[in-house]
Amino acid sequence: MSLLSFRCLAAAASVGLGVAVLKATAGPAEVAQIKPRQDKLRDMGGALKAINDELKKGRIDWDNTVIPNAQTIKDRSAYLLNWFPRGSGPESGKKTYALPTIWQKNDEFMRLGKAAEAEAAKLNQVALSKDGNALKAEARAMGKACKACHDSYRSADYENADEDQDIP
Fold first, then answer.
1. CA 148/CA 140 separation, integer angstroms
2. ∠ CA 120-126-130 to the nearest 5 degrees?
3. What pTM value is reported for the model?
4. Using one digit for the tens of pLDDT, what is the confidence trace for 86-110?
5. Exposed end of the chain (fewer CB within 10 Å): N or C?
6. What are the Cα distances from residue 155, in Å, to 42, 78, 104, 129?
Protein backbone atom coordinates (compact mmCIF):
# COMPACT_ATOMS: atom_id res chain seq x y z
CA MET A 1 0.00 0.00 0.00
CA SER A 2 1.45 3.35 -1.00
CA LEU A 3 1.70 6.30 1.36
CA LEU A 4 -0.94 8.17 -0.67
CA SER A 5 -3.38 5.25 -0.45
CA PHE A 6 -2.78 4.99 3.27
CA ARG A 7 -3.45 8.72 3.75
CA CYS A 8 -6.68 8.49 1.72
CA LEU A 9 -7.80 5.51 3.78
CA ALA A 10 -6.94 7.33 7.03
CA ALA A 11 -8.82 10.44 5.88
CA ALA A 12 -11.88 8.40 4.96
CA ALA A 13 -11.81 6.66 8.33
CA SER A 14 -11.55 10.01 10.12
CA VAL A 15 -14.54 11.38 8.23
CA GLY A 16 -16.51 8.23 8.99
CA LEU A 17 -15.63 8.48 12.67
CA GLY A 18 -16.63 12.17 12.69
CA VAL A 19 -20.01 11.38 11.17
CA ALA A 20 -20.53 8.59 13.70
CA VAL A 21 -19.72 10.95 16.57
CA LEU A 22 -22.16 13.56 15.24
CA LYS A 23 -24.90 10.96 14.94
CA ALA A 24 -24.11 9.71 18.43
CA THR A 25 -24.78 13.18 19.89
CA ALA A 26 -28.32 13.04 18.52
CA GLY A 27 -29.32 9.99 20.48
CA PRO A 28 -32.83 8.83 21.32
CA ALA A 29 -32.96 10.79 24.61
CA GLU A 30 -32.05 14.05 22.92
CA VAL A 31 -34.46 13.50 20.03
CA ALA A 32 -37.22 12.55 22.51
CA GLN A 33 -36.75 15.94 24.19
CA ILE A 34 -37.78 17.96 21.11
CA LYS A 35 -41.56 17.47 21.17
CA PRO A 36 -41.98 18.08 24.92
CA ARG A 37 -39.77 21.18 24.58
CA GLN A 38 -41.98 22.46 21.79
CA ASP A 39 -45.13 21.81 23.81
CA LYS A 40 -43.77 23.57 26.91
CA LEU A 41 -42.59 26.58 24.93
CA ARG A 42 -45.97 26.76 23.21
CA ASP A 43 -47.63 26.68 26.66
CA MET A 44 -45.44 29.58 27.81
CA GLY A 45 -46.18 31.62 24.69
CA GLY A 46 -49.90 30.95 25.04
CA ALA A 47 -49.81 31.94 28.70
CA LEU A 48 -48.10 35.26 27.93
CA LYS A 49 -50.58 35.89 25.11
CA ALA A 50 -53.48 35.25 27.50
CA ILE A 51 -52.05 37.80 29.93
CA ASN A 52 -51.55 40.37 27.17
CA ASP A 53 -55.07 39.75 25.87
CA GLU A 54 -56.38 40.33 29.37
CA LEU A 55 -54.51 43.65 29.54
CA LYS A 56 -56.09 44.74 26.26
CA LYS A 57 -59.58 44.10 27.62
CA GLY A 58 -59.17 46.74 30.27
CA ARG A 59 -60.85 44.59 32.90
CA ILE A 60 -58.36 42.08 34.26
CA ASP A 61 -59.46 38.65 35.44
CA TRP A 62 -56.67 38.08 37.92
CA ASP A 63 -57.81 34.81 39.47
CA ASN A 64 -58.88 32.88 36.38
CA THR A 65 -56.46 34.19 33.77
CA VAL A 66 -53.51 36.26 34.91
CA ILE A 67 -52.38 34.43 38.04
CA PRO A 68 -52.59 30.87 36.62
CA ASN A 69 -50.87 31.91 33.37
CA ALA A 70 -48.11 33.79 35.20
CA GLN A 71 -47.62 30.69 37.34
CA THR A 72 -47.34 28.52 34.21
CA ILE A 73 -44.67 30.82 32.78
CA LYS A 74 -42.75 30.84 36.06
CA ASP A 75 -42.97 27.08 36.55
CA ARG A 76 -41.89 26.22 33.01
CA SER A 77 -39.12 28.82 32.87
CA ALA A 78 -37.36 27.12 35.78
CA TYR A 79 -36.60 24.19 33.46
CA LEU A 80 -36.11 26.13 30.22
CA LEU A 81 -32.35 25.68 30.04
CA ASN A 82 -32.68 21.92 30.48
CA TRP A 83 -34.83 21.60 27.36
CA PHE A 84 -31.96 22.04 24.90
CA PRO A 85 -29.53 19.14 25.37
CA ARG A 86 -26.76 18.88 22.79
CA GLY A 87 -28.08 16.76 19.95
CA SER A 88 -31.63 18.11 20.06
CA GLY A 89 -31.17 20.66 17.30
CA PRO A 90 -31.31 20.34 13.51
CA GLU A 91 -28.68 17.59 13.59
CA SER A 92 -31.29 15.32 15.17
CA GLY A 93 -33.12 15.08 11.85
CA LYS A 94 -36.37 16.18 13.53
CA LYS A 95 -38.22 19.37 12.66
CA THR A 96 -37.11 22.08 15.04
CA TYR A 97 -36.66 25.82 14.77
CA ALA A 98 -33.86 25.73 17.34
CA LEU A 99 -30.72 27.03 15.65
CA PRO A 100 -27.27 25.44 16.08
CA THR A 101 -26.20 28.78 17.59
CA ILE A 102 -27.78 27.59 20.86
CA TRP A 103 -24.94 25.13 21.30
CA GLN A 104 -22.26 27.20 19.56
CA LYS A 105 -22.85 30.23 21.80
CA ASN A 106 -24.18 28.34 24.78
CA ASP A 107 -22.90 30.78 27.42
CA GLU A 108 -24.91 33.61 25.86
CA PHE A 109 -27.95 31.35 25.45
CA MET A 110 -27.71 30.37 29.12
CA ARG A 111 -27.44 34.03 30.16
CA LEU A 112 -30.57 34.92 28.20
CA GLY A 113 -32.41 31.89 29.55
CA LYS A 114 -31.58 32.88 33.13
CA ALA A 115 -32.77 36.42 32.41
CA ALA A 116 -36.06 35.02 31.09
CA GLU A 117 -36.41 32.90 34.22
CA ALA A 118 -35.87 35.99 36.40
CA GLU A 119 -38.50 37.94 34.44
CA ALA A 120 -40.92 35.04 34.80
CA ALA A 121 -40.50 35.12 38.59
CA LYS A 122 -41.14 38.89 38.57
CA LEU A 123 -44.20 38.43 36.36
CA ASN A 124 -45.59 35.91 38.81
CA GLN A 125 -45.01 38.24 41.77
CA VAL A 126 -46.71 41.11 39.94
CA ALA A 127 -49.67 38.88 39.08
CA LEU A 128 -50.05 37.93 42.72
CA SER A 129 -49.96 41.62 43.71
CA LYS A 130 -52.82 42.35 41.29
CA ASP A 131 -51.26 45.66 40.25
CA GLY A 132 -52.46 46.44 36.71
CA ASN A 133 -49.81 49.05 35.89
CA ALA A 134 -47.02 46.81 37.13
CA LEU A 135 -48.48 43.91 35.14
CA LYS A 136 -48.36 45.96 31.91
CA ALA A 137 -44.70 46.78 32.47
CA GLU A 138 -43.70 43.27 33.49
CA ALA A 139 -45.61 41.58 30.65
CA ARG A 140 -43.68 43.85 28.29
CA ALA A 141 -40.38 42.93 30.03
CA MET A 142 -41.24 39.22 29.81
CA GLY A 143 -41.98 39.59 26.10
CA LYS A 144 -38.61 41.28 25.56
CA ALA A 145 -36.85 38.47 27.43
CA CYS A 146 -38.54 35.90 25.19
CA LYS A 147 -37.75 37.90 22.06
CA ALA A 148 -34.07 38.19 23.01
CA CYS A 149 -33.70 34.42 22.63
CA HIS A 150 -36.01 34.14 19.65
CA ASP A 151 -34.07 36.79 17.69
CA SER A 152 -30.79 34.88 17.90
CA TYR A 153 -31.66 31.26 18.59
CA ARG A 154 -34.91 30.51 16.73
CA SER A 155 -35.05 30.13 12.96
CA ALA A 156 -36.78 32.89 11.02
CA ASP A 157 -38.67 30.06 9.31
CA TYR A 158 -40.84 29.95 12.43
CA GLU A 159 -42.51 33.21 11.43
CA ASN A 160 -43.68 31.63 8.17
CA ALA A 161 -44.84 28.37 9.73
CA ASP A 162 -48.40 27.30 10.31
CA GLU A 163 -49.58 27.75 13.89
CA ASP A 164 -50.04 23.98 14.26
CA GLN A 165 -46.43 23.21 13.41
CA ASP A 166 -43.89 22.42 16.07
CA ILE A 167 -41.62 25.09 17.53
CA PRO A 168 -38.07 25.04 18.91
1. 12
2. 145
3. 0.79
4. 999 999 999 999 999 999 999 999 9
5. N
6. 15, 23, 15, 36
